[in-house]
Structures are given as structure tokens and as C-alpha cells.
Design brief:
Length: about 375
């Protein structure tokens, strides 16, 4: 009998497994938000539980085993266990809840109708070389936290046969984090007007990420099958920055980070990049990316057949299983079933495909549509 770990390994090796591997909650970008998780559990008749937030910004909960088993999920995340969950101190600002992240950026969410936190304040208001040199970089994961994560990884490796996915608590991608520290408009302008300051910030983030990833992987790298990283550089229509800016400023630093990661683990390198990334993919393959997520099939140029035909031999598609912008939230169960069947038909031949929704499942998605999507994936394109 094929184990989940073997099933995922086959897909990662571009071989067809016994069935399509399924991921839900294995990463920070293939999970489900709390506002959708609670009604889903109710719909399935699973017991009510105390919700513990796994990732504050996106409002992702820790997912319980009963749900993962119900959907035959083949992955498990290696991270801080539920009992050691990070709990940022929320500040009451009247109509909003606010908190300050480890980088000194302020995030805020409306109390009424709020679904996730947005960045509203940035620690470097005026980006200069001097401001970067004076910046106090965040603390790394504590020895106690790393020990807890290692204990979890050892137990999961020893006692289960799931594919294990890890991620360091670094922040956003190199480009994303620069925007969070200074504001997106400010950083993009600085890339054009003061390249030296922009590069100083990007180098500082990269150096910090390398040290953080190395510390994390020294603790758990030997147990992981997949290691997650992400950096959004595209919109739904095209590049967010010019291809030249990516190639000159971001790509070399990603390459340096990925080389450091590969020196500490044999896990496959998973890259999350939303939007119209068709023309980004060759760059990612060149610098050692094994897995692409979320495979946003609703974005321009991201046709699943075209993606598979062009890049299917060189990169694994992890996601793209169901369009979460239109079909999953607004379609009927029959339309969801047809969508999943079509994506499986396009992505799964010759392996190289792990089923997941396009990014995290959002609030207000009908539970019956979620069940239809994962049950269809479990059966395969039949």
C-alpha cells in the first residue's frame, strides 16, 4: 500500500502516484481561514472546538486531525505545536484590532466584518542607507521554540507516514518584506530613485533570512520533504515590477537564499507566487525551485494546459486544483466538480501535481463546495 509520504514523493519526482496527492493546511498558503473552517466543521458534523490561530495576519487556524483525515490529506505542517502558538498582543483601537509584528510594522483589522489584518504602518518611513543601517532586525526563533518544532518533526516522521512540510518564521518574501517595511509605493519609488538604499534593504533582509533559515533547518531540515518560501512579484495581469527589476534586484538574492536552504536540507523547494507568473517560472527553475504554488489559474496567461505543456517536466504544480476566486465561492457543486476534474486532467499526467486550492480557502465559501472539491480530488478525474 502506498503511503501519503510515498505518494507525494512520487508526484515531486514527476511520476504518477496511485492517486493524486492532496494538501490542505500543509503550508501557510494552502489552508483555510477561520471564517470558513468553523462552518465547514459544522457542515461535516465534526465536534466544535476551541479555535487556536496558527497565522495571525491571514487568520488561519490550526487544523484538527479529524478534518485532515476526512479529506485524505497527505501532508502535515512542521511548525510550532498548538500549545505553543504565537499570540500577538492585540491593541483595542475602537473600531479596529491592531498589533505590531516582529519587524515593527503595524497591522490592523476591523472588529466588525474584519477577515484578516492589513499593513497600515511601516518601521522605516524614509528609506535611506542610514535608516537601514540603524534598523533593529527581528529576533530569530528561540532555542525553546526550535526544540519544540524539532520534537514535533521527529514525532511526525516516526509515528506517521505523511509528507512533512516546513517553513521558517521569516516574514514575507524578500521583495514583499521590503514593501512591508517601507510601504509598497515608497519601496518601488526607491528602487528607481535610490538603488543603493533599495539594495541595502534587500541585502539586509536576505542576510537575515539566510541566518533564520539556516537555524531553522539545522533543527528540522533532515525530517522535511518540502520547504516553503514565497514572494509575490506579479499581479493578476502582469509583473508587479519590471522583469529587469526582478532579474537585477530580487532574483540574485533569492538565488543566494535558496543556495543556503539547499545546503541544509534535501527537501524540495516550494515557491509561492500569486498572479500571472507564467514568465517568472523560467527564472524560478533556473535558481532551483522545485514546486510552484498557488498556480492561480484565473490570472492572465495561467491556463492549466499551457502551464503543464510548457513547464510540466521541470516544475511541480502544487495548487491550481480549483479556482478560489470564482468557482469555489460562487459556483454550484456541479460546477466545482467540473472545475476540479478539468484541472486534474490538465495537471496530473506524468505526475508533478499536488492538489490544493488556489491559495487559502476564504470566508463565505459554501462548505458543500469545499467538500465537493476535495472529494472529487480524492476520487481523481473519473
Amino acid at each position: 500500500m502506498v503511503t501519503p509520504r510515498e505518494r507525494v514523493a512520487a508526484a515531486l519526482a514527476h511520476k504518477e502516484p496511485d492517486r493524486i496527492p492532496i494538501d490542505l493546511g500543509g503550508t501557510l498558503v494552502s489552508s483555510i481561514v477561520t471564517a470558513a473552517y468553523v462552518p465547514l466543521r459544522e457542515h461535516l458534523g465534526l465536534p466544535a472546538e476551541d479555535i487556536v490561530i496558527f497565522e495571525q495576519t491571514q487568520q488561519l487556524p490550526y487544523l484538527s486531525e479529524d478534518l485532515l483525515e476526512r479529506f485524505a490529506v497527505d501532508t502535515r505542517v512542521v511548525a510550532l505545536p498548538r500549545e505553543r502558538a504565537l499570540r500577538p498582543e492585540l491593541v483595542d483601537e475602537g473600531a479596529y484590532w491592531a498589533w505590531t509584528d516582529a519587524w515593527g510594522a503595524k497591522l490592523r483589522m476591523p472588529k466588525t466584518g474584519g477577515l484578516y489584518f492589513d499593513w497600515v504602518g511601516h518601521p522605516i518611513a524614509d528609506l535611506t542607507v542610514e535608516a537601514v543601517d540603524a534598523f533593529r532586525w527581528p529576533e530569530f526563533e528561540t532555542a525553546a521554540d526550535l526544540a519544540a518544532i524539532r520534537d514535533q518533526a521527529i514525532a511526525l516522521r516516526r509515528d506517521t507516514d505523511y509528507a512533512l512540510v516546513g517553513t521558517a518564521n521569516l516574514g514575507g518574501g524578500i521583495f514583499e518584506q521590503a514593501c512591508r517595511m517601507t510601504g509598497m509605493e515608497s519601496f518601488m519609488m526607491t528602487m528607481l530613485t535610490d538603488r543603493r538604499a533599495a539594495e541595502r534593504l534587500l541585502d539586509g533582509i536576505t542576510d537575515h533570512y539566510i541566518e533564520g533559515a539556516e537555524r531553522h533547518l539545522e533543527a528540522v531540515g533532515e525530517f522535511l520533504d518540502v520547504y516553503q518560501y514565497g514572494d509575490d512579484v506579479a499581479t493578476q495581469e502582469t509583473w508587479m515590477i519590471s522583469p529587469d527589476a526582478y532579474a537585477g534586484l530580487i532574483k540574485p538574492r533569492q538565488r543566494r537564499l535558496f543556495e543556503a536552504i539547499r545546503s541544509k536540507t534535501e527537501a524540495k523547494l516550494f515557491y509561492h507566487g500569486c498572479g500571472a507568473v507564467f514568465d517568472l517560472i523560467p527564472h524560478l527553475i533556473e535558481i532551483g525551485v522545485d514546486v510552484l504554488n498557488p498556480v492561480q489559474v484565473s490570472a492572465r496567461g495561467m491556463d492549466s494546459k499551457r502551464l503543464k505543456a510548457t513547464y510540466g517536466k521541470d516544475i511541480v504544480f502544487w495548487g491550481g486544483g480549483v479556482d478560489t476566486q470564482h468557482v469555489l465561492p460562487f459556483g454550484s457543486p456541479d460546477e466545482v466538480r467540473a472545475e476540479v476534474t478539468q484541472r486534474i486532467s490538465d495537471f496530473s499526467p506524468d505526475g508533478g501535481f499536488v492538489f490544493a486550492s488556489v491559495h487559502n480557502i476564504q470566508a463565505f465559501v459554501p462548505p458543500e463546495n469545499i467538500v465537493t472539491a476535495f472529494d472529487t480530488a480524492h476520487r481523481g478525474a473519473l
